[in-house]
Amino acid sequence: MDFELTSSTVSEDIARRVRTLIHSGELGPGDRLPPERELSERMGVGRVSLREAIRLLQAGGYVEVRRGATGGTFVTELNRPYDDWVRQMRSRVDELGDILDLRIGLEARAAALAAGRRTEAHLAALATSIAQLADADSRTSFRAADAAFHSTLARAARNKRLETAIGQARGEMFVPVDRLVYTELVETSRAGHTAVYEAVRDRNAGLAASAMEAHLEQTRLELHEVVFGSGVRT
Q1: Which of 113, 160, 211, 225 is least surrounded by CB atoms within 10 angstroms?
Q2: DSSP secondary structure, 157-173, as one string
Q3: Where are the alpha helices (DSSP H) in the chain?
Q4: What is the pLDDT of residue 60?
Q5: pTM for the full model?
Q6: pLDDT tens string 96-151
Q7: At what angle do helices 205-227 and 79-91 cross, to 10 degrees?
Q8: Separation of alpha carbons 143 and 24, rounded Å
């Protein structure tokens, strides 16, 4: 889980980084954030700034703070943040298409690089994420498996700047699994991930890039149906 800071506005950047992890599926409903002391040390920020960031996340409906022996800061069911994201996409018709175009450019390139640079450990992690996706028994576990695949592939490209850019682009989206036909989504995602994995395994850079593009174009269609209905294209 990457909590590296990337801007100079500390509290807002902390909140943005956590939102990115939530949007991409690396954190999901019910997940507990690390304790305040641990999180502040990992981020290299003061606890006052961290507390302000948590307040920002609470105000946005992303987290809730529970008191008591089993308390802590937990990711909510995300109903309000998701609805806010959909409204934002509907008010900016080109934005969703722009995000997908960016992801295709970044992740297709990452897949091509991964085909030449991946290790056996990367392949094992990719295969594990595909198996977890196929076995997902909840929308939260699906999101986690999907995030694991894409983040592992980005690492396999072995380009830190590209990996960071992919994480940021994925964080611009809010994978709306709850609004998609779950069983169909699992199958299309598993097929897309498998095609990319096999090309990377076989060190076929061109096929890896085209398989990733096809996978993300399928994602585009699914998101359009959810956000706009079948009548709007970008």
Answers
A1: 160
A2: TT-HHHHHHHHHHHHTS
A3: 10-24, 36-43, 47-59, 79-91, 95-117, 120-134, 139-156, 160-171, 182-201, 205-227
A4: 95
A5: 0.81
A6: 899 999 999 999 999 999 999 999 999 999 999 999 998 988 778 888 899 999 99
A7: 100
A8: 8
**Given this model, what pLDDT does residue 160 score?**
97
- Residue 92 DSSP SS3: coil
> How far is residue 84's CA from residue 164's CA, in Å, rounded to a whole number?
25
Phi, psi (5° rounding) for residue 138? -155, 160
| Coil, strand or helix at 177 | helix
Dihedral sign, Cα of residue 219, residue 223, residue 224, residue 230: positive
Other Cβ atoms within 10 Å of 38 Cβ, number: 10
pLDDT digits (tens, 9 = 90+) for 6-62: 555 899 999 999 999 898 888 988 999 999 999 999 988 999 999 999 999 999 999
213 or 183, which is more confident: 213
User: Both tokens of residue 46?
Assistant: 């003061």
Euclidean distance between CA atoms 51 and 29, whole angstroms: 20
Pair 66, 30: CB distance under 8 Å? no
What is the Cα–Cα distance from 213 to 106, expressed in whole angstroms? 10
Q: 3-state DSSP call for residue 198?
A: helix
